[in-house]
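Entry:
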Amino acid sequence: MNIKKIGVLGAGTMGAGIAQVSVQAGYSVILIDVVPEIVEKAVDGLNKAWTKAVEKGKATAETVANYKAQLIASTDINDFKDVDIVIEAIVENIDIKKKVQKQLGEICKADAILATNTSALSITEIAAATNRPDKVLGMHFFNPASVMKLVEVIPGVVTTNDVVQTVIELSKKIGKEPVLAKESPGFIVNRILVPYINEAANVFYEGIATAAEIDKAMKLGAGMPMGPLELADLVGIDIILAVCEFFVKEFADSKYRPSLAFKQKVRAGHLGKKTGKGFYDYIK
């Protein structure tokens, strides 16, 4: 299938980043979110990024004008009716994703691919809620999507090989490095990464060291480019907690039990950078 028009559902940080790289690769993009303020914020952020690129000599004014012409922002999900693929990047909740993907299946043309940017959830379960499970797969981008090169491509049980290959090629065309993974909770990166972050949160909760000391130790002692608790704040503590809870449910193994530090932060509304507070205070 030849992808010409891309739909992105969810105009938060991830959705806006996915829209940005898709536009910059020459695709027509429809970016949709049900919250008008989120759409406005995303478009404003993209325009600022492109203006800065012109100022730094990394793009011409003509190129940026083309980017803006290629991007349509909307709050009406029915505007996806003629796209070739929808990349859904909404909240990491399987019930909500199933409901939305079912709706997309009813709106989009029959041959459109439905991709979900889930961090860990079952592609097969999400696909089963649609009228086209053979055209549903995971397309897991990493934050910030405008910079990070990896895209995990995860087929469900009945996803066709043609759909997988189309998405692999699309990933390459938008400047990403696709890695194919079998469906399993957390896929590759989060299966390894989230337990590491969770253990760092346990060390913090037990008072063994401060967040800054933990991050400094892992950067200097293990060569990590970013400390685990800095990373939790960047990803979103609510997302890390949700992935841990999903692992416990799927694997029935207590080693994945989420740190109480995550639960406390989420209850306080301290979700990381997106709320201004997490393991660190970003409001100061």
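Residues 246 and 252 are 10 Å apart (CA to CA).
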